[in-house]
Every structure is written in structure tokens, then in C-alpha cells.
Write a structure and sequence with these properties.
Helix content is 33%, strand content 15%. The chain is α/β, with parallel strands linked by helices. Helix 4 packs across helix 16, helix 5 runs antiparallel to helix 6 and helix 16 packs across helix 17. The protein is globular and about 65 Å long.
Amino acid sequence: MKLSNASRELIRSRLADEIGRIDKQAPHRIALAYPSPYAVGMSSLGYQSIYRIIQAMPGVMCERVFLPDGADRAGTTEIEVPVSYESLRPLGDFPIIAFSVAYELEIAGMIRMLDEARVPLLVEDRREGDPIVIAGGPLTFSNPVPMMPFADVVIQGEAEEVTPWAIEVIHQASTRDAALDNLAAHPHINVPIKNGYEPRNPAACDLALLPAISAIRTPHTELSNMFLIEAERGCSRECKYCVMRRTTNGGMRLVSAETILSSIPEDVMKVGLVGAAVSDHPKITHIVNELADRGLGVGLSSLRPDRLKEPFIEALCRGGYRTLTTALDGTSERMRQMVVRRGYEKHYVNAAELARKYKMKRLKLYLMVGLPEEDDSDIDECVEFVSGLSKIVPIALGVAPFCAKRKTPLDGYAYAGVDVVSKRLDRLRKGLKGRADVRSTSAKWAWVEYVLAQGGAREGRAMIEAVQAGGRFADYRKAFAPLGYSVHGAQQAGGSASPRKLPLLSGS
């Protein structure tokens, strides 16, 4: 489908509102693609970081391409041709297409964009003259295999150093096949047609390259005009469900307070401190206070319940916080202990009391439903506990069904089932009706995410049928059924993942 005049005007309007774009002309052009719409892609610090890195390469420039607005809606069978924001050049005209993929369901956006661009979807169908498709991003830390059928090159882990090297290798190679041969030898790059589908170990970039900072600020994201900067990378904690736990890529690496504070441009009004465990930074209260002293608004990507002490809360309030947000994670104390979440009831009570003291509008808690061995008694405990918190301060619950991820201690554990999760969500909503604002992601789409999180190349290939049929839940269910997947939880014969029980309270 051709690009409409309305879409052209929308792109021009967004470009006019951007601050910090790096305009450049160079002989080698790369499409830096994001498989979700503009508002999502421009909120990604990883995507912006790679944009900055490519624009700094001699003789190379990148143009940004996003999934067209609305193309991520289920039931969509046709989308407008994806074009670059910088020149309106069609995606398929670029010799290199580099995707940043954050999580499993974004593979669908990758398929849609390649399909509409008339790039052969499967790597084995591409020939000399076809674009070389590179994929990287957060998904590569867990299970990138479902997107490997569509990516000639998968850069695994932290891509700051690997990406420029890969681009140079491609430009220096005499043929497409020669480039793929050379790339396949890199320890952190997988070239499926050469290496097969076995993931490589994730790369860890040199500490001197930290922190990642955003290049472009725009009002057209949820993080409107916010300057993003890493406060740390990685994590020192052991949460069983999380890919970015302490054993991943050397654990937590801190950025000094001095570096953070000196990296913020003078014209910035809002700063977002990004990382898997920002509130664990030993200087975080000092950093937030310094930013507040400058008159800047402050946002943090993660607040740990045991770190919500009064001086920190006071600093957040000075930085413009009006909603205090942290993760409850498990529905009961038993569930939280099982996933090794260092959050106890006393921490949440303290957070609620401090939120009230500092006149915040509400306490928002993120919660998982469907953890291993959870039952209705855990849901009821959650209802009772959250009801008590609601007497202190208004409560909002953001609920997500649990999906086991590769490279975590809960890897391989079966999805609880669409019916089971839906019933527990209903029990939670009814129990907290009038006491808390409960909003949840879909039990059905969590099942699709689970299949891909635990799946492999055949699950990725099955997505083609689902996406081209419209990308509705029923389309995915139909596409995954021949592989042995059941929406009722336990894997049927033929599925890639094998459900298993894990010991509770092991602490490992």
C-alpha cells in the first residue's frame, strides 16, 4: 500500500518537533528500523544509542524507519509501505536494514515491515542484491531464535561495539555471501544460514562507552521531550523470572554521578534515568536532588520497594513525581519469596505511607499472575493486602501474566493457561473493585508471548501465517496448533517447551 498524503504530513510534523536530530549525508545508507510505531521506537534508549553510533561512523549514515501507525493492531492485513523519516525512501531500497527488537511480539512488526517492503521474508530466499537484514536489541539476551528465520545477521547482547564492526564488514565484502561468511566468525554474531540457530553468547561493551544517552527528544512519545541517560547497566539482584539478573553480562555496572550530571544538555527540561535497577545506584538520591536543584523534572525506569526510603522519596517529589511506582511482582509473600524478590509487605506499607506524606496521587504496583504453583489463596492474599494499602493511599495495579523466559531459573516452566490466568485476573478485579484501579495485559496475548519466548525457528516461521492472516489471537492459535501448543497451559506433544516443576524457596 502506498504512503498516503496524511502519513507524509504526519512524518513532516514529527520531524519539525524533534530536537537533537543528527542530519548527515554519506555514501553508505542504512535503514535503522523499529518494528513498532514511532512513539514506541523513539522511547527506546537502545534504539537511540545505535542511531547516535551509526551517525558517528565515517562515510555512513542511517535513516529511521518505523512500523506505520496502526499497523500493530490485530486484524490488519495491509499496511502502508514503511519509509524512512529522513527521506521517505522505501525500506526495501536500503542495502542494510538494521532492526532493534525489544520483545517477542515485535517480531510480528518485523515481518510486516519486510513483507510490505517486498524483501524476501526468509533468509534462504534472499539473493545477491537483496538487503542484508540485521537484528539486535533486548530480545537477544533471552531467546532470539524465533526471529532468526527473518534476520541474515543477529547481533547478540550489547551492540555498541559490534554494530559498527558488522557494518564495515558488509561494506568491505565483495559479495553478499562473503559478508555473511565474515560476520559468521564473530563470537557475538549469529548468521543463521551459516551458523544454524544456536544462539551465541551476548556481547558486553567496554565500560568506557557507557552511558548510553538519547540523541533525539520529541513530544510524540509517552516520555514527551525527556532526555534519557543510563544510570547503570545490568542488575545485582537474582529475581528468578528476569533475564537481566546479576549473572547476565557481568551484573550491574554503575555510571558515576559526575558523569550522569555532566552529560545532560543545558536546554533539557526533563531527564529519564534508565537501567534495570536504577534505584540501586548508591548515589541515586544525590543525583535526583541535583537534577531537582536545576529545576528539571526527573523520571526513573525502575524503583525497588526496599529502596524507597524517605530521603529518596523526598528527592523524587522535588523532581516532579506524582505517582510512586514499584513492583509487587508476586500475588503473595510466598510467591515473592519463590522468585527471590526482595520486597516484603513492610516495604510496600512504608511506600504507601510515604506516598501519602508527600501528597502523591497514588501508589502504582506492578504484579505478575500465573507464577509457578500459584493458586487462589495467593490471589486472595493479594486482595487483602492491597485493600489494606488502599486505605493509606489510592492504589493502581498493573498486572501481567507470567511468561517464562529463556536464560532464567524459571526457563521451561509452562504457561498457566489462558483460562486459568483469566479466572485469576477476574478474581483479582472483583476482590479489589472499588478499592484499586486494576488494569491487566491480555491472558491470550501473554500465551502468544510465551510460545515465542520458549520457542524456536519453527515458531518464528509459523508467525508468517498468523501475521499475514491479520495477526489476531485466533490467527496465532491456528498457526501454533500444528506445533502442539495448547492455550490451556501444559504443552501438548510436539511443542518446543517441556513444562517442569521447580523447587520453591530455593533462593537460586
